[in-house]
Specification:
By secondary structure, this protein is mostly helical. The chain has eight helices and no strands. The longest helix has 21 residues. It is globular and about 45 Å long.
Length: 145
């Protein structure tokens, strides 16, 4: 029998696998004014996202808005990095909920609705993420784009 996982549960599972955090813990960290230290380091976060999207470390660093030199000098995950990682995981989960193992391929394939750009190439800005989410939402509601 095939187990159906809701989008929310899939999102929670991926988040926990990559960051070691539950959504409750993430919410507490991102909404608190206090600083935080995670057991997980930035290299592990970048590596986990790279595997998820099937991309190179340097491409994942770009999506998170950090340089490779920053990654080698400072292993600490900061609030901005964690927030961006959560956004990427959330977008990935929407696609994976429908396409399962083919989600990474979808993100790495030129899309006519995005002017023949790969969805992945737009995920480094909030504006680009919004465009990709609009395409995902349209597809989930039965539109053919």
């Amino acid at each position: 029998m095939i187990e159906v996982i809701s989008e929310e549960n899939l999102n929670d599972k991926i988040l926990a696998d990559i960051t070691g955090l539950s959504y409750h813990e993430l919410d507490t960290l991102l909404t608190s004014d206090a600083g935080f230290r995670l057991e997980q380091n930035a290299n592990n976060l970048v590596s986990g996202l790279s595997k998820l999207f099937n991309i190179r470390i340097k491409d994942t660093s770009r999506l998170l808005g950090i340089s490779e030199s920053r990654l080698s000098r400072n292993k600490q995950i900061d609030k901005t990095m964690l927030d961006k990682a959560e956004a990427l995981i959330s977008i990935y989960s929407k696609v994976a909920n429908v396409l399962a193992d083919e989600a990474a391929t979808w993100f790495n394939t030129d899309n006519k609705a995005l002017e023949n750009k790969k969805p992945l190439d737009l995920l480094d800005t909030q504006y680009g993420q919004g465009k990709v989410e609009n395409i995902i939402d349209a597809l989930l509601h039965g539109s053919y784009l």
